[in-house]
Amino acid sequence: xxxxxxxxxxxxxxxxxxxxxxxxxxxxxxxxxxxxxxxxxxxxxxxxxxxxxxxxxxxxxxxxxxxxxxxxxxxxxxxxxxxxxxxxxxxxxxxxxxxxxxxxxxxxxxxxxxxxxxxxxxxxxxxxxxxxxxxxxxxxxxxxxxxxxxxxxxxxxxxxxxxxxxxxxxxxxxxxxxxxxxxxxxxxxxxxxxxxxxxxxxxxxxxxxxxxxxxxxxxxxxxxxxxxxxxxxxxxxxxxxxxxxxxxxxxxxxxxxxxxxxxxxxxxxxxxxxxxxxxxxxxxxxxxxxxxxxxxxxxxxxxxxxxxxxxxxxxxxxxxxxxxxxxxxxxxxxxxxxxxxxxxxxxxxxxxxxxxxxxxxxxxxxxxxxxxxxxxxxxxxxxxxxxxxxxxxxxxxxxxxxxxxxxxxxxxxxxxxxxxxxxxxxxxxxxxxxxxxxxxxxxxxxxxxxxxxxxxxxxxxxxxxxxxxxxxxxxxxxxxxxxxxxxxxxxxxxxxxxxxxxxxxxxxx
Length: 509
Prior knowledge:
CATH architecture of the largest domain: 2-Layer Sandwich
CATH topology of the largest domain: Heat Shock Protein 90
Distance between the termini: 163 Å
Largest sheet: 6 strands, antiparallel
Structural class: alpha+beta
Order of helices and strands: HEEHHHEEEHEEHEHEEEHHHHEHEEHEE
Number of strands: 16
């Protein structure tokens, strides 16, 4: 017997069986894939007009497995508004072989609701002739609904973006504006056609601070927002237009964590507010200047009255007292002498009151001996009258203030000392006078009860009004005012005014 030689090949009888198994596996894979992807296949026999499809297509149609409709039945599943387009696409594909890809409204069997489907079709030829149409069929309703929701959302965003009263721009990471609404174009002076090529930090725009000086790139809200990765709010700046016109804006910028975007920027027009603030500052400066001039005029009038009281009224009363004294010395009648003595006493009291009023109006010591002597005199008088310890410290340096400023500073210091008497309940007070960097500096301190410094901002409060007035008057002469107070720890007020060359003047004799 001869032995058959093993070749390693399978018996040819097994081939049909293996092919059938492979086909089953392939068909199952196709069904599983179609079910997962929600995509089915279909085929139209052009000679019989019969349609065959996969199970997934049947599920989308809502029919039982094995259902095989005619073309007309299949077309009836499409919504009336979509059917003409489908028919036209099928006709062209059958006649010319032109493929199609359609998204259509579709009504499954047993349903009244329309869904979106996508159908792709192409011609199948045999012997150079189109005999069939084949393609895919997919339920895309979920995606179309999401797409529509996204479209509506984008439309709402676009309406809001364009109609928002603030200017809004979106910039990329390099700072180039890639989106801008109408308001921002108006504020920044750009056109819709050009905005994508323009930058907020472009040299074509001159950007300035509120004081009129150029703003540096690293000061922009957009630059800081991107660099610091945080919201930057209310950065005020001016954009100088071609004709020198300035648009003042307040800028708020926020970083955007998206690939194509870097910063979102909102602009609000504050030009009117800025103009109003500027005008208000001018009026305030004029008011302070007027207040200072009134203060100087008041001081000059005080000095005039003091001189008049001293030189005219005081000397006349003194002369009258002297004459009456001489007359009384020559009288022998005691009753007449007694009457004249009483008159002399009244005159003596009137003379003292006149001197006191003279010092109250304009102390001669201020103009004759200087600021230091006047402060020391005022402090010692308050100490004697009120029983409060007084210490005066002076650095011994010359204080070259003109007559008006010298009187002004003295009255400020005296008013602070009187405030201590009225409100502080202090046992002692100290006044220090120094010369620092061409400024005369005065510090008035007490060891009293202290007070809430917020009262200084409420002009209606009695305690704060005098301090508020001093602060405002100092501002008018480029002076400074610093207040520190703590309950139970006393109060400290520091003043300073720039020096001016003292002008010669006549003092009270």
